[in-house]
Amino acid sequence: MSGVTTATVEERSEVVTAPEPFWIRQRRLGAGIAVIGLIAAVVFGPLAESKTARFTLSEDATGSALKINGQLGTIIFGVITLAIGVLMLTARVRKRYNALLVAGIVTFVIAFLCWQVAGKFLPLVATARFSLELALPLILGALAGVLGERSGVVNVGIEAQFLTGAFCAALFGTLATSVWAGVISAMLGGVLIAAMLAVLAIRFLVDQVVVGVVLNLFAAGITGFLYDRLMQPDAAKYNQPPHLSEIKVPGLSSIPLIGPVLFHTNVLVWFALILVFVIHFALKRTRWGLRTRAVGEHPIAADTVGVRVRGLRYTNVLLGGLVAGAGGSYFTLISSDAFNQNMTGGLGYIALAAVIFGRWTPFGALGAALFFGFTQELANYLSVVGSPVPNQFLNMLPYIATIIAVAGLVGRVRAPAADGVPYVKS
Fold first, then answer.
1. Could you tell me the pTM of the whole model?
2. Same domain for 222 and 244?
3. Same domain flag for 345 and 209
4. 163 and 30 housed in the same domain
């Protein structure tokens, strides 16, 4: 028998990976930042007047101010924005590109303001103060969304909770001649809508997005009907709620810059800011927070260790209704003197977008709400000073940001895994 030569062949399994595409998310965002920076430097710069832009560190034109030549400032900050965009396009800064994105947006805003404020002044303290006030309902609405969605329930009905809260605050605040009766009734009105959402979505397993849209239409219809039949014929009796006045804290309100913003305002602003810290701490450090996050991510696993999934979802949705209802009281007790039909103007949807922008976190939702409030205040200011840019375009910014957020183009955002998924116990 002839000898058989045995050859040992070593097979190597090589993992073949596809080459990374050039237009990854970082580069797409970098291209966008570079484009707006180029627009600021090349378009806004020549249009800006060569006059001093004054950013006063007070609530009016008096006091110290940051001064810069309007045209020069527009071009400089436009070039900085362009450089940030180019850096995002070329450099390997994946762990930091979100910070670069924020820096690019900030420098572009500064360039835009240098163009608009050239020859004028922008009171930074007053702008910050009114931006915070305009963001108030969005902060509370976004927190309501965070409470629901971290436990797996999508709350598209924030608009309905706003509208019902605004109506109840006006009606019962007028009847009781008490601003606190108005706030409490607004919170209960929000709970009423939240209870309807919870029963339909959790108990009867109706699609949560559909339920939210239906509740928004329901709230618009019922409040509009009661307004026509009750409030409009006798506004003096049913639609003249008291105004929630501002409180000036002695000493603290005199702190430069932050004093007038944080310590010369209404109680609801303090309530909203404190609630951000409380919910953040509770989600991270308490048993309730651990269970909430577990139910939002993996309800079956949470159920196996004894967590009452449906009960916790009911609790969180109702808590969210309380918070969003308080946000609804802003419209009739702070921003206006009476209730009007559909006066919330779709801000409930903006609050929902703030939840997505904020990555389902309380502080993220706060930042997104402040951004929306700032754009609204900036539009109001520029319309007063006679900006060449129509304020309608500035008023569109929150809604454009909403589209961008819903499209998922701002960073890698991931909702809780069980968000919007009904739970059926086996």
1. 0.90
2. yes
3. yes
4. no
